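Supplementary Methods. Inverse-folding protocol.

Structures were first reduced to a discrete structure-token string of length 412. This string, shown here, constituted the complete conditioning input.
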């Protein structure tokens, strides 16, 4: 699945050791379907060669405002008008200071100054957003001058992508590293998604729960958490503030999402009820264990050599979705609840009955055994009007679609 098909990105490199990450970023953008035109400053050429970037982007790199390839000799105009976005990665402290003052003594800064902005665009032309991925030593990053510049750049309309923290090339440790190429890719993809849930707070439950039998054993299920994580990512891409309540899974947290790790259904209920208190949308994607051992043993249950097996008694777990869907805020229409139904047969009838039983306006039916652990899935969306089939597709694509379906339904 490619999320950047049809997008043309001007990737600007300025002088910094993080230029090595820009090579991988260039490749990653292309793999997602974008076309990439690289522009480098003289400083960037000290760290990585245009040959490398040309090979990766399959386009000759621009380094000079006097590039004779352009018939009108205006690469700063031509390159910026073609772009769907300009991404400066890495953006050095010096380059940001330059942008801030509107200086334009090299092709890249000139092009940034000349780009059509939302407040200036003329006729049929489209504005060209400027995305900035800073990269510098921690002292340079925390310096009041840099922080002031960042604020002003944001006020001037630039979209700042943040920095990472950790070991730096200079040997120091702290904030200021450029984000990794995979993180930047996720940010760029998110940037282009429609902001259907801007200003909304979304809570998502994901993954299985784990119900302890004793301190070393428990009962769980095959849910991988991928669907719930994809929904959390899609909601964040759509501009929402997202809290993801995850059972025990090994899936990386989507960028910009607050993750709360839980184990049992009871833990998930506590985290869910608390988070839903100031949320607008609650999406229950987790495969919650229906029962838990009635009395989890405090110590490991041992074999006694007689061949006797332990007798396990179970009690029913709380129904997280039904509890939250019955809350006052949901009843007043302040919280929109969405459930899932993991079935193994008779999907439509089961999903319709489950929607009523859970008391939710929208329920997503799917066949458990054919989705658990997979990268794709198929949905049956059930609401008060009936059922709608959504064909098999990658989970992120389905998650974006579900976000759009929810956005169209909420009137909060
Ligand atoms: N769910 C929940 N708490 C539970 C059980 C389920 O919040 N204790 C939520 C799931 O996250 C999902 C929906 O309820 O959104 C339906 O879950 P599912 O496992 O399909 O159904 P059950 O309610 O467990 O019913 P059954 O096992 O009879 O199919």
């Amino acid at each position: 699945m490619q999320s950047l098909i049809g997008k043309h990105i001007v990737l600007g490199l300025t002088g910094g050791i993080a230029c090595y990450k820009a090579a991988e970023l260039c490749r990653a953008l292309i793999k997602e379907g974008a076309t990439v035109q690289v522009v480098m400053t003289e400083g960037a050429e000290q760290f990585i060669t245009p040959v490398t970037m040309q090979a990766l982007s399959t386009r000759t790199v621009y380094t000079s405002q006097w590039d004779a390839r352009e018939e009108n000799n205006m690469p700063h105009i031509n390159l910026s008008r073609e772009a769907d976005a300009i991404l400066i990665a890495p953006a050095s402290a010096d380059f940001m200071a330059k942008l801030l003052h509107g200086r334009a003594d090299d092709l890249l800064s000139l092009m940034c100054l000349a780009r059509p902005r939302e407040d200036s665009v003329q006729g049929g032309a489209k504005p060209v957003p400027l995305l900035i991925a800073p990269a510098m030593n921690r002292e340079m990053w925390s310096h009041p001058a840099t922080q002031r510049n960042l604020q002003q750049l944001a006020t001037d309309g630039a979209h700042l992508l943040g920095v990472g923290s950790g070991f730096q090339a200079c040997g120091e440790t702290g904030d200021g590293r450029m984000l990794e190429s995979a993180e930047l890719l996720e940010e760029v993809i998110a940037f282009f998604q429609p902001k259907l849930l801007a200003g909304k707070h979304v809570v998502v439950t994901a993954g299985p729960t784990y119900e302890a039998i004793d301190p070393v054993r428990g009962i769980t299920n095959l849910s991988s958490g991928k669907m719930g994580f994809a929904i959390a990512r899609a909601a964040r891409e759509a501009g929402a503030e997202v809290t993801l309540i995850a059972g025990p899974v090994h899936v990386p947290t989507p960028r910009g999402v607050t993750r709360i790790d839980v184990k049992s259904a009871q833990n998930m209920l506590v985290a869910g009820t608390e988070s839903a208190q100031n949320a607008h949308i609650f999406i229950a994607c987790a495969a919650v264990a229906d029962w838990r051992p009635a009395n989890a043993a405090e110590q490991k249950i041992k074999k006694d050599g007689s061949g006797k097996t332990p007798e396990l008694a179970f009690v029913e777990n709380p129904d997280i979705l039904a509890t939250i869907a019955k809350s006052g805020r949901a009843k007043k229409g302040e919280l929109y609840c969405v459930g899932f139904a993991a079935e193994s047969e008779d999907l439509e009838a089961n999903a319709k009955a489950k929607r009523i039983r859970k008391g939710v306006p929208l329920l997503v039916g799917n066949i458990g055994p054919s989705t658990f652990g997979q990268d794709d899935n198929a949905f049956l969306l059930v609401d008060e009007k009936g059922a709608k089939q959504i064909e098999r597709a990658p989970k992120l694509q389905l998650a974006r679609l579900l976000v759009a379906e929810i956005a169209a339904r909420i009137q909060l």
